[in-house]
């Protein structure tokens, strides 16, 4: 079968959803299918097109045996502005349409969202190529934008986004979501449950191990072997609510030996740096995004791995970093809504502690509990590793994903050509 995958992010980007899309493409190819990918130029999480990719409109390359067409994206200097983000998303949706036209016939077109506009691109290509299209949701874009204040609940932009959602959902042959909370959200918005398939992200468990925290990462970054390390790793954006993480570091006196480390890049990093300098937080370390190959050692160097979210973020986001955290065998400290998808997952599977979001004191108290109760912390880390092995091993997950896509590719494309 021939599969055409449209996705904004792809390897070599190691953050965001690029690695998951690449895993799917390579798995389909290994199963004997013809796979082509249209993606953007790598720019995450720094919001700058990487060296070696700049100054081009389109570029062909091959990664993991999969032919890749990279197409133009407008990368704004200030991605925090709503209009700039809309232009960013629309630029790729349009250029991917141009690139996708010349990718030959397809039995199924797969659009990975965000951006939501890519669903419209997939629908247009489906009409041109007379093929069904499948929408895979890594975020619930409209809900996340409203929750973080980027869109007003009753504003014109939000209404247009909701209309676009309905248009794309109605015309897709199927919709994939990465967690149960996303499915509940869509069903509540009158999307037929039978159209939705839960297809979680997955991990290469051989890549992320559970060895000792004394692996050189601490020494390389000036962190003592006996210091209690609380780490956040990943993109640094508004929805992550990382002011809570920064402010929690203030709660610890130097002699307590607790270090907070924020590892990554993103549009909110400079704001957090300024906040830390203004408060003279000596036990907070900002480290740049690390090479992907060093991620296992980086995560295993921590005693606790943290996730923070804004209060308003509920079932709109399920962070991919949670899988990596659990795979590393470390307890998860989640400053998120108790009834958010992340909060429910961490609590129900006993892989860490859930505390009130945007409450630095609550986060600090949870850190002290994990520091002072090593057996409980170790059990949470062990639970996390077992959950990943049982639910997110890519050897199992990607087989299920492939079979679902194969079944859609055999359907009458007429359902997608309304």
Give a description of the structure.
There is one protein chain. The protein is an alpha/beta fold. The protein has 2 domains: 2-202 and 393-416, 3-Layer(aba) Sandwich (Rossmann fold); 217-391, 3-Layer(aba) Sandwich (Rossmann fold). Helix content is 40%, strand content 17%. The protein has 15 helices and 14 strands. Strands 3-4-2-1-5-6-7-8 form an 8-stranded mixed β-sheet, sandwiched between helices. Helix 3 (117-129) links the parallel strand 5 (108-113) and strand 6 (133-137). Helix 1 (18-30) packs across helix 15, helix 3 (117-129) runs parallel beside helix 5 (156-171) and helix 11 crosses helix 14 (374-391). The chain starts with a strand and ends in a 9-residue tail after the last helix. The mean pLDDT is 90.
CATH-derived architecture of the largest domain: 3-Layer(aba) Sandwich
- Structural class, please? alpha/beta
**What is the count of DSSP helices, taking H or I runs of 4+ residues?**
15
Largest sheet: 8 strands, mixed
Taken as a percent bin, the fraction of beta residues is 15-25%
Q: What share of the residues lie within helices?
A: 25-40%
How would you write the strand order of the largest sheet? 3-4-2-1-5-6-7-8
Indicate the mean pLDDT: 90
Question: Shape, please?
Answer: globular
Residue windows where pLDDT falls under 50 for at least 5 positions: none
Question: What count of domains describes the coordinates?
Answer: 2
How far do the termini sit from each other? Answer: 23 Å
- How do the SSEs run, as a string of H and E? EHEEEHEHEHHEHEHEHEHEHEHEHEHHH
Count the beta strands: 14
CATH class category of the largest domain: Alpha Beta
Radius of gyration: 21 Å
CATH superfamily descriptor of the largest domain: Glycogen Phosphorylase B
* CATH fold title of the largest domain: Rossmann fold
